[in-house]
Specification:
By secondary structure, this protein is mainly alpha-helical. It contains 4 helices and no strands. The longest helix is centred in the C-terminal third of the chain and has 50 residues. The chain is rod-shaped. The termini are far apart.
């Protein structure tokens, strides 16, 4: 059981490290979104996918360790959680504290990742809204009616309504 306990702590620590990497990448992504740097955004998304794959593998290892612990302790697997293990370690305060610290660190890191991702989602939604606005504006300019602008020889100059005074850089 002691080796399974060490395995569980090690897996949770590794998961925490990977989620911290993910938080760092998400912070970088926030700045890239603000700058609208699409090539950098693509690179960060690729790195995030690599970290997510590693996290998935660690999660599978954690599930395996938890399954093995439930078998050794003859407890139903569906009710067997890290909190259950912490409660069961009442007679081993050092191990209990160690596992509880790792769990709390992981929870704090996950909360940070969630918060950053929510901010990034808002920024992306705003960026998409701005792109949609620009597209609508350009479409309406393209389909605007011609005005009756004639030169001194009575020829229609064919200016499109609204095309003369728009400067996209303002």
């Amino acid at each position: 059981m002691a080796s399974l306990m060490d395995d569980l702590v090690q897996v949770l620590e590794s998961e925490n490290e990977q989620y911290q990497k993910l938080a760092g990448l998400s912070k970088e992504k926030k700045q890239v979104i603000i700058k609208a740097d699409v090539p950098s955004l693509e690179k960060i998304v690729d790195l995030e996918q690599d970290v997510a794959s590693t996290i998935q593998n660690l999660d599978n290892r954690r599930k395996k360790v938890m399954h093995d612990m439930s078998v050794v302790l003859n407890k139903p697997e569906e009710d067997f959680t890290v909190n259950t293990v912490i409660e069961m370690l009442g007679s081993q305060p050092e191990e209990q504290k160690r596992l509880e610290n790792v769990k709390n660190q992981l929870k704090a890191t996950l909360d940070e990742v969630r918060k950053i991702n929510e901010q990034n989602q808002i920024l992306l939604r705003q960026a998409l809204d701005m792109v949609e606005f620009d597209l609508t504006l350009f479409r309406s300019m393209r389909t605007a009616p011609e005005t009756a602008n004639y030169d001194k020889n009575a020829y229609n100059t064919g200016d499109i309504l609204g095309s003369s005074g728009f400067d996209a850089k303002q």
